[in-house]
């Protein structure tokens, strides 16, 4: 199960960037290692929709020349990354995992694409995803679903499926995912990596294909917390192209990479996330309980908290998401319905069957949920829970409606817009990763990152790689 | 914790009403497609109904306002 290899493709961004900055490692050599890794593994993993080998090597050569010339840009300079295939890339097709957009070639980069490019990253390619960022694996979309590197018979979670698989398997040092109900933290949890959904408005959505305007978030997926902090640093900040982005100053997230949770108060909403429920795996809960104990041992104070409206989150998230998705996709749904995969076509159509009253009621409930979270976060610094209700399910027998049934542990933070990260916190007896979710106050990514980093450095799950 | 998505509701929308709803939404769905989507619709519709059962008093909708919007 576990590989502790020191091969180039298993370096972290921090490790590689230190070698690149000190000119002990060439971005070209590093990029070649990743392209070789992708070539050797992707016929089984199916992480990539579009591979950009020639362009990646050209970008790596440029990065190398810049660094030799003394123009080092920072920790992402020369680092090979990949993008979920809904981030617009100028001149490179962006499919959103759908036949509808198989031949769509944007003329401009998304803001996130551009910012990572400005930071000096090398773009390896565009990653597999669940069609239009909704639902689960669906063979009727025409795109092969990505597979979980910890066990190829299991799904990756989604919708940022290729992002989770690629980072976990050492096919990319970092990736971007997008998240409307848990599509960054979910695959991060199921693939044993780190995934951060920052506060709504912290990262621009401009040039990213919409699922639900008011719940979509963009964010990084990496092997370690510090790598996520580096990527967030490049991504965060106001963007005139996205009027919902905040003008609040962006802090230096590297200052949060210190091991200290002493005195932090962590709220634990056991009534929703930990109590026995048919949809919640007891092994997952027990694993996260150990993570909580570790945080307590490290100096944090744990207190049980109650968030009364959590039972309404799933309903509000789904009604808002599908109503907004229908509005965005209505024209294609009516003119080219058969080009959608079966599951997304059905669910987007259902979005058109909700009434305006349903949508408005969902937004009123959302306000209530936001207030409940705000009240709790007056008393605690963070909330810690399992990220997912289950470890990665197997493809065989997978219920495509499972993402609709039962509770969602990630959606509360899409509905409220609060920052939340998933970090590895152990494995099931069957060798599948389990993620722990740490959420915080609006724009308090620094505290979220600091707690995640402290736990990571204590538990050191990042030292274990899939043997795939 | 709610398990609404797993519950069966005796007041499900009929096939005839679902056809009308799809027609009003301009979805141009065939009878076969309506039949196929019905179980999934029922699952989702439980959530919409759940929202209407919440006592919200004078609660307003969640909105965000940006003073400099649109640019």
Architecture overview:
The complex is a heterodimer of chains A (468) and B (71). With 468 residues, chain A is an alpha/beta fold. Chain A has a single domain (2-312, 358-466), classed as Amidase signature (AS) domain (Amidase signature (AS) enzymes), CATH 3.90.1300.10. Chain A is 37% helix and 14% strand. Chain A has helices at residues 13-21, 27-45, 53-68, 111-118, 161-168, 185-191, 225-235, 270-273, 282-297, 313-335, 342-351, 356-376, 412-416, 445-459; strands at residues 2-3, 48-51, 80-84, 122-127, 174-179, 194-197, 217-222, 265-268, 301-304, 382-386, 420-427, 433-440, 465-466. In chain A, the strands form 2 sheets. An 11-stranded mixed beta sheet of chain A has the order 2-4-3-5-7-6-11-12-10-8-9, with helices on both faces. In chain A, strands 1-13 form a two-stranded antiparallel ribbon. Chain B has a domain at 12-51. Helix content of chain B is 45%, strand content 0%. Chain B contains 2 helices and no strands. Chain B has helices at 15-24, 31-52. The longest helix of chain B has 22 residues, at 31-52. The N and C termini of chain B lie far apart (43 Å). The chains are: A alpha/beta (468), B mainly alpha (71).
Please report the total strand number of chain B as a whole number: 0
Report Rg of chain A.
20 Å
Mean pLDDT across every amino acid position of chain B: 82
In this structure, how is the largest beta sheet of chain A organized?
Answer: 11 strands, mixed
Measured as a percent range, the helix fraction of chain A is 25-40%
**CATH class designation of chain A:** Alpha Beta
Oligomeric state as shown: heterodimer
């Amino acid at each position: 199960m576990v590989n502790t290899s020191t091969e180039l493709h298993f370096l972290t961004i921090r490790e590689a960037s230190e070698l690149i900055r000190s000119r002990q490692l060439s971005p070209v050599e590093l990029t070649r290692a990743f392209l070789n890794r992708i070539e050797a593994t992707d016929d089984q993993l199916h992480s990539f929709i579009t591979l950009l080998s020639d362009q990646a090597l050209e970008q790596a050569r440029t990065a190398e020349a810049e660094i030799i010339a003394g123009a080092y840009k920072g920790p992402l300079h020369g680092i090979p990354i990949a993008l979920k295939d809904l981030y617009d890339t100028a001149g490179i097709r962006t499919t959103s995992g759908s036949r509808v957009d198989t031949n769509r070639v944007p003329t401009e980069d998304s803001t996130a694409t551009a910012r990572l490019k400005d930071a000096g990253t090398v773009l390896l390619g565009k990653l597999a995803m669940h069609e239009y960022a909704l639902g689960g694996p669906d063979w009727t979309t025409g795109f092969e679903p990505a597979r979980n590197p910890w066990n190829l018979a299991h799904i990756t979670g989604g919708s940022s499926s290729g992002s989770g698989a690629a980072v976990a398997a050492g096919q990319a040092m970092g990736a971007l995912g997008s998240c409307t109900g848990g599509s960054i933290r979910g695959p991060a949890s199921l693939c044993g990596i780190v995934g951060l959904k920052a506060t709504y408005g912290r990262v621009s959505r401009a040039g990213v294909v919409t699922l639900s305007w008011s719940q979509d978030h963009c964010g990084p997926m990496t092997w370690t917390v510090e790598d996520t902090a580096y990527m967030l640093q490049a991504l965060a900040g106001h963007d005139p192209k996205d009027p919902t982005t905040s003008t609040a100053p962006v802090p230096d997230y590297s200052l949060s990479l210190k091991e200290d949770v002493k005195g932090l108060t962590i709220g634990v909403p056991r009534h929703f996330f930990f109590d026995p429920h048919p949809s919640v795996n007891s092994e997952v809960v027990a694993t996260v309980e150990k993570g909580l104990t570790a945080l307590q041992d490290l100096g944090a104070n744990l207190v049980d908290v109650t968030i009364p409206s959590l039972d309404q989150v799933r309903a509000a998230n789904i009604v808002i998401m599908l109503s907004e998705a229908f509005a965005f996709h209505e024209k294609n749904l009516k003119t080219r319905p058969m080009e959608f995969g079966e599951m997304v076509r059905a669910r987007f159509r259902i979005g058109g069957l909700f009434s305006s009253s349903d949508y408005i009621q969902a937004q009123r409930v959302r306000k209530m949920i936001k207030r409940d979270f705000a009240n709790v976060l007056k008393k605690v610094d963070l909330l810690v829970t399992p990220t997912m209700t289950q470890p990665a399910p197997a493809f065989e027998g997978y219920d495509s409606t499972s993402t609709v049934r039962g509770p969602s542990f990630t959606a509360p933070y899409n509905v409220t817009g609060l920052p939340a990260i998933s970090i590895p916190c152990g494995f099931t007896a069957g060798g599948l990763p389990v993620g722990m979710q740490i959420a915080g106050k609006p724009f308090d990514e620094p505290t979220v990152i600091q707690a995640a980093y402290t736990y990571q450095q204590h538990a050191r799950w990042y030292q274990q790689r899939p043997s795939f | 914790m709610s398990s609404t998505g797993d519950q069966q509701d005796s007041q499900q929308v009929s096939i005839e009403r679902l056809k009308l709803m799809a027609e009003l939404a301009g979805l141009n769905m065939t009878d076969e497609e309506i039949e196929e989507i019905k179980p999934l619709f029922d699952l989702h519709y439980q959530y919409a109904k759940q929202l209407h059962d919440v006592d919200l008093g004078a609660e307003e909708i969640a909105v965000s306002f940006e003073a400099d919007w649109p640019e």
